[in-house]
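Researcher: For the record, we're logging two predictions in this thread. I'll number them. Prediction 1 follows.
Model: Prediction 1, sequence and structure:
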Amino acid sequence: MPHSPFRIVAVLALAALFALAACGGTATTPVPSTCVAPCGPGDSGATALPSSGGSVALAPLTVGLGYIPSVQFAPFYLADQKGYYAAEGLDVTFQNAIDADLVPKVGSGQVDLGLSDGTSVIPAVSQGVPIRYLATIYGKFPSVAFAKASSGIEAAADLKGRKIGIPGKYGSSWVMLQALLGSAGLTPADVTIVEYPDFGQGAALAQGAVDAATGFVNNEPVQLELTGTKASVLTIDAITPLPGPGLIAGTQTIETKRAAIEGFVRTTLKAMNEIAATPSVGLEAAIAAVPELAGARDKQAAVLAATIAAWAPRGAAAGAPLTGAVDEAAWNASIEYLKTLGLVANAITTSDAIDPSFTAGP
């Protein structure tokens, strides 16, 4: 399983990264659109504009996904392969980069759209990075703590005195862990933190080097269970509703490419709902986009199943449509919580960080 797309570095580095991105960001791997002309029906009836030569000219849209191509991005691959983006007049190119690189590049307009969660967006906006969160992809916060079920760790209080593996004291996993411990009246001083900068905490847990570890609900716990070891997973959704990863764009891009963004959001959500209803179509789309995934179909299917479960909003009825709606109350709560951790450099409001108009309906 590839590293999760939502790894981020220290929040205090974001302002510097933004400045660097404005001059030229780090290299990413472009994944060209597989459909370069209208080849399928869209929802909106939007059409591409003819060029001066009479041929169809598609509007370019660069979309930053996670660290490496993965089955977790199946909706984007499916919408592309079925021609949904092209039918909206879009020529979509995917790039892959870690979140810390992606956020400032979206803010500077080098990338039109990207995926990021509230623990990256809120600190970045508070430091002046001009981005907005537009549509929710993960209704549940995917960063979790997990352990072997045999460990007896079933709740946050059970972490007291235990060794916990974590990539480092930064990013979404560190925010999540502090919230989880705090819910049981604990602090990081009540546990032993073992850092794995190479993201090897899952392997360390499997080998018994630590009692618990941080990870992503659709990654490390899935891998553990595929080895035949049942996992105990601790989430924070009922404790501190941190906003999960969703689509972000720079404010200038929103102004200049609103129609394109609207089409992209609409058709991506269409593909998400199709995959939620029939996961196999998502698996096949991911394998078509990333052929090496075919070597571990069962593993990829398990990762996709966990991903689909994480898309559903907190408290949503089973099978409810995925609308991408932005939970403003959760964003309010998250801003207040991140303030307690010293991650909000300058005062902001929820309206400074989100633009819910892209999923507000007709």
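Researcher: Logged. Prediction 2.
Model: Prediction 2, sequence and structure:
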Amino acid sequence: MRVVVVGAGIIGLAVADELSRRGVQVDLLEKGPAVGQEASSAAAGILSPHGELDRPSPLLDLVQAGFQLIPETVKRLESLSGLDLHYRASGSLALAVTEEDEQEMAVQLEWQEKAGLRMEPLTAAQVRSLEPAVNGSIRSGVWWPQTAHLDNIRMVAAYERVIQQQGVATHTQTTVSQFLAERDSVHGVETSRGRFEADWVVNCAGCWAQFDTALPLTVPVIPVKGQMLRVQTKSPLVQRVIQSPRAYLVQRSPEQLLIGTTVERVGYNKKVTEAGRTAILQGAREITSRLDALTVQETWAGLRPGTPDGLPILGPTPWKGLLCATGHFRNGILLAPLTGKLIADWILTGFCGLDLSPFSAMRFTKEILT
């Protein structure tokens, strides 16, 4: 069996990994000069058991299932690649700075407690006791003991090494222009380097998933820009992931503090802006004044793949041989191993252990099914 995977971000890499380790021949196609150079490398690598959801959602079960796979995936990738992914189950602190923040936090806590999520409400004094650098005007907080983080750039590199070992054929600078389709089935893709025939095609193209407008399949994934900052620290400023509604802090290493992020719907524009930088720093300074003594070393932006309803597009389509795995928005790193497993299960057995109907591409293509 041969499978073509379109897009070599973290989702495409994970799909290629899972298929190849099960003996499937995989061609991984990437339009850029290297794998994982878009949203996958721009992220902060936060792994949250609630997926940073602000309301009940079908995504919660998916996120929790994905969260359970992360430790074993990290262990396997580190063992096979020889790379340390800097995985750390540090927990996180969500902070309420304003009265409005506190009211919204109370609403979120109510549904999250009903969902059985583990958390502990904290007073401002308790927050400062846990994290002395948090010296802003904090009203209260929530402690999430399960939250973890890792170096997503190293995760991309580890996946690349592992799939090379497993015989995946990776084709960079290969732009996919259309699916090869006949009637109700897809049997490959047309690219800038010619045709790739396959038994299955998996669309993991992120923000570029709607590349073939000739096929009547709506994949409404849009780019959502997120700007980031990296600050040099002499020693760790914080021990945990620190989050407020306007900023977050992630101590990636003792010398590197990541600060994010913006949520901008501005098309395929990755330009870093002074307005974005200012907004991020203002949000971070609500948390701690210690940033005033530190220098921003690097800024960048990535394009997260968002969807109209905030849910990923995952699983089979009306066309035989065509699957989607895109639109993961802010949960791509967390959901990558699970997505790879679900796609491989579907291709090899026609079944997977989770109900994918809320994430089906068919929710956007009802008109072609009538």
